[in-house]
Amino acid sequence: MRIFRVLLVLAVAIGLSACSSGKFKSYNGPEVTRVEVHKSARKMYLLHHNKVLRQYDVALGFSPQGHKAFEGDGRTPEGVYIIDRQNPDSQFHLSIGMSYPNANDVQVARASGKSPGGDIFIHGRANRQNDRNRGRDWTDGCIAVTDKEMEEIYSMVRVGTQIAVFP
Question: Rounded to whole angstroms, what are the CA distances from 138 to 5, 93, 141?
Fold first, then answer.
């Protein structure tokens, strides 16, 4: 019986260590105090105050010019938002959500008789084959990076962090 318990404990330990080597990384560096996305340069920066900790190339919405006006326009929002959630079960290999739409976004969309949409995330690549071949800017308005980069970003950026998206 004792040998069975030892083997069981070893099996559980091996299983847990295998899980930790997956998409959930740990980060022990300086706090990310701000995320900046520069749409025209297709760059995202994770900052600790004024110091750039990491930079990434990004893909944007399929119609990247201008601020998101309504659901389905393919634009990535511009402005200052907050990272408001983390989704470990994303269909896009991890994701962190932005607080879009804000009150102004809702007002602008409704004035046009449309919905502002929502569910704007920073996420990894699509798991669906047809989304992988949509071109440089392929999301519906989100900000996409590689899966490996998303694992790093997910470990570094906390809920409550400010994100500024520039044209």
Answer: 51, 15, 8
Residue that is written with structure tokens 């919905």 in the block: 115
Q: What residue segments make up the domains of the chain, in order of their start?
A: 30-166
30-166: CATH topology is L,D-transpeptidase catalytic domain-like (2.40.440)
* Residue 163, CA atoms < 13 Å, CB-side half-sphere: 28
Q: Are 115 and 138 in contact (CB under 8 A)?
A: no
User: What is the gyration radius of the CA atoms in the chain, in angstroms?
Assistant: 19
Task: Give 84's contacts (C-beta < 8 A, 6+ positions apart).
Answer: 97, 98, 99, 159, 160
Name the DSSP class of 20: H
pLDDT over 90, % of the chain: 74
Q: Are the C-beta atoms of 105 and 68 separated by less than 8 Å? A: yes
Does residue 109 contact residue 75 with C-beta atoms inside 8 Å?
Answer: no
pTM > 0.70: yes
Q: 76: closest CA among 37, 34, 131?
A: 37
Averaged pLDDT of the chain: 86
Closest C-alpha to 101, from 89, 91, 112, 90: 112
Helix (H, G, I), strand (E, B) or coil at 80: strand
